Amino acid sequence: MSLFSDQRNLSWNPPDTSSRIGITLETYILEGMLGFPAATGAFTSLLNQIGLAAKLVTSKVRRAGLANVLGYTGQTNVQGEIVQKLDEVANETLLSVLGRRGHCAAVVSEELGEMRILSTDPRAKYVVVVDPLDGSSNIDVNISIGTIFGVLRKGDGKLGADPSDFLRPGRDLVAAGYVLYGSSTLLVLTTGLGGVHGFTYDPTVGEFFLSHENIRIPERGATFSINEGHSARWPEAVRRWNAWIKEERKEEGRPYGARYVGSLVADAHRTLLKGGIFAYPADRGGQGKLRLLYEANPFAFLFEAAGGKASTGSDRILDLVPKSLHERVPLILGSPRDVDDFEQFLRGER
Ligand code: AHG
Ligand code: MN
Ligand code: MN
Fold first, then answer.
1. For a Cys staple, 226 with which of 178, 246, 279, 297, CB 3.0–4.6 Å?
2. Cα(296) to centroid(ligand 1), Å
């Protein structure tokens, strides 16, 4: 039988380049598909550095039980919290990767009391805020944890960065994102302008691949996420909201389901994808537990870019001007209608 008698269609079909399958994080950034001017090579290079750091931290997280990085270091950090070995490993990994290629002038990290200068080269135009390992209390029980980051431009005309480059409202962020070390490793990021996009890590290839393009949060959800163990310390209005959201009122879509992982990255990611509300309100007579620079601001930036809302319960998170690098802030994050409901309770309108 001659080679050509076979009736199958042997003509060559060009690859479908419009396909969204197989787009790596690097390609997505380089092709400017995050909605920022692709021309800024330093910016694309910095974002790809963050992607590299995420790969390195992922490998350490996935081997935590084996590589003797479980447990405590025996020290406490500036927050007065016990430092887990993985907190430190993730922090060192991020600092060393961000320090290469000279685009990042300085870092503020949950694990460092002071700002860390990485470069005084005038070409280092960005500074980074980072929570290297979020949800530390869940490390030893193998529950999802994460990394949170935000990118700001360093003030013009300066050789080295200084704290004033960080003590700016979150609306000045030029990029923000997180890595969720869950059943798979997912990196979600935005530049604010071009939408919110998720990339799932394929360890067999060692690449992040586009998996959640243009994430949009539903107008309203059906779950609420708050640590009810602290309810005795909440403002009275929060307790009234909490009782209201659990009322049996099917016609009004209540009660909402309760979900609380205890890792901000996990609770926020579920809320971003499914809608609803996450709340870590003021308590202990203070401002709550979450930190403005590297927990609240990056998530507020992401949620607003995805059509959601982020407030203290009364003020827009992204308008807050930080007074100190590690200051805490109440964080109410979620679907716009759900955050509106919460704010009405805090204004005494309900
Ligand atoms: P971190 O591990 O970076 O200190 O963050 C832990 C935070 C956050 O991930 C989570 O939402 C919150 O702590 C949970 O606090 P409670 O245990 O008080 O609910
Ligand atoms: Mn955290
Ligand atoms: Mn942390």
1. 279
2. 12
